[in-house]
Amino acid sequence: MIGIDIGGANLKIIDGAGVHIHYCPLWQGAPLAELLKQYAGNPAAVVMSGELADCFASKMDGIRWIVEAVQEVLPGAVFYGTDAAFHTRPIPALAAANWLASADYLRGDYADAVLLDVGSTTADVIPLNRFEDLRGLTDTRRLQEQYLVYTGMLRTNVATLVSSVTLDGIVTPVSTEYFAASADAHLVLGHISPEDYTAPAPDDGEKTSEAALRRLARVVCADLDEIGRDGALAVAREFWDVQRTLIARAVEQAVSRSGAGRVITAGIGADLFARELGGVTLYEEIGEVSDALPAYAVREVALRRSGGD
Fold first, then answer.
1. Half-sphere exposure of residue 222: CA atoms within 13 angstroms, side-chain side
2. In angstroms, what CA-CA distances link 300 with 102, 193, 199?
3. Does an H or E element contain 182, and which?
4. Which residue numbers delimit the Hydantoinase A/oxoprolinase domain (predicted)?
């Protein structure tokens, strides 16, 4: 059996050969069925969050499209929902259930933990000892509960988190254009490598430290030679300070409410946030499959039990 996690930007698959991550921007008409053809012939368990892509008029439109695209190639696929059950047809419960699949898989062995899964776009904060309370939550409810923090390691517009930065002691408002992404900040701060920068750059340019610094300078409507490396780095540091604070506060609240004794981290931000929060990475526990945790989790949950409707 293979596990599949279909996001708005990335398609993640776990099979016997390991982890496969394909850039698959649904809002740009990415050929999901075509990408899945290489996995045809396998039974599959699927989770999704890509139904929220703005190419779909509604989440149900997105769910239907995704289910049909998967079933075109993998007709026996089952889909995990926020009701913690598997289904074979499009229903509202399939929307954004990937985080719950992770919780379902981990809750037995890690009931004393809060899971923080920081991906390219979002951070999921999941108290693993509150599974029954988590069941049925929509993304809107998770935002309200601070179980979903809508910022990630690669795709967040820097200007969505900072309204101004301090340059040479002067508070400087930022442009709200999409000049620089979180990947640019994390690259120049040494949190990720150029190889980790898998999302397109805002200007479709190079994914080097120099190019990232140029993009960060644009956030304050400057060229790099106007504010220098120190100025561009100041933009990156102030973004990171805000992002770290947002995520850390959500984790602290989940720990306090759940009584959890530790934090475990997954996703592209696992190492960084394990250091920041004094946690342990899931990679240390289960290896490279933690890089595509929902895909791995939904496969393992499906193998544990059968379901469908």
1. 19
2. 10, 30, 28
3. helix 182-188
4. 45-269
Provide CB contacts within 8 A for 81, sequence distance 6+: 87, 91, 93, 94, 97
pTM over 0.70: yes
- Gap between the Cα atoms of 35 and 160, Å rounded: 32
- Determine how many CB atoms are found less than 10 A away from the CB of residue 303: 12
The tokens describing 61, both together, are 């439109």
Residue 216: which residues within 8 A CB-CB, separation 6 or more? 158, 179, 180, 184, 185, 188, 232, 233, 235, 236
Class of domain 2-99+292-304: alpha beta
Digit-coded pLDDT (tens) for 270-287:
999 999 999 999 999 899
Are 274 and 280 contacting, i.e. CB atoms less than 8 angstroms apart? yes
The Cβ of residue 129 has, within 10 Å, a number of other Cβ atoms equal to 17
